[in-house]
Amino acid sequence: MSADTTRGEELQPLADLDRVIHEPARLMIVAYLYVVESADFTFLMRQTGLTWGNLSSHMSKLEEAGYVEVDKSFVERKPRTMLRLTDAGRAAFREYRKRMEQVLGDIPA
Amino acid sequence: MSEIVDLKELERRAFRATFQDGLWDMFVGVVVLAFALIPLLDALGDFWSSVVFLPIYLLGWLGFQAGKKHVTLPRMGAIQPGSARKAKLRKITGAIALALGTFAALGFVVIALQQANARLADWLFPALMGLLVLVAFSVGAYFLDLPRLYGYGVLAGLAAPVGELLYRHAGAAHHGWPVTFGISGGAIFIVGVVLLARFLRAYPVVREGER
Description:
The complex is a heterodimer of chains A (109) and B (211).
Chain A: H1 3-10, H2 12-15, H3 19-22, H4 24-35, E1 36-40, H5 41-48, H6 52-64, E2 68-75, E3 78-85, H7 87-106
Antiparallel strand pairs in A: 1-3, 2-3
Chain B: H1 7-17, H2 23-37, H3 46-51, H4 53-76, E1 79-81, H5 83-116, H6 118-144, H7 148-170, H8 177-202
């Protein structure tokens, strides 16, 4: 087995990373939603430092991937959007962490 | 690298964010300040001067709720904590109930001691009260991950024993409570006001879809 092949195998988990989660802004969003049961749009905007438009766009991608559930409602005639990770989203984030830890843990300091 | 994202720290930060508006601090300040006010109303008699607590606390609580709704929510948003945090919050309720139960039991001990040795009982009550307050705040600080509550515990916990000291040695009226609880409650309330001012400056109102 050549050295190149071995290196390729070692880095295979990198190639298999979930690209939906791997994007930094989405990683922040998913990480925040992972540690709470649900959060509203305003809270995520504050915590991540993303603009409303940016957050909306990332949220759409996460929703399309089936990772986030969006619950829109009106509280005293004001719109309120609560967001939560789906079971698939939680599983995907756990898997992402596992793979990243595996890859980064193997890199010599 | 053992953690790609420090989830514990992230959860702590998310949870703590809901306490940065200073409203809890102001409410706690009002609760402590009420202890300064009550002895001044002793002309009303023990029962009525104690009952005055209730409208003060009710007003404080209503102000807190209104603040959360009209000030915090439009600026900071809201979260539902995760299951681990909810379990911690359940523990704090249990721990404080236990502390209050212990305090009630100790109250009976103080009454019994008063029959036997009035001088000892005079000091025992403020000491126990101070200890209970310190323990209650420390439990809150630990389970809520809010270190400033330890400081509040010391401030409010010292109020009764220091008040007794002032009463014994400097002749302060009402066991020194108006002075010591006034200072402690006032200091906690002022911290809340400062936090609120910083919060309002840092977080303008956000309306969904506007940005």
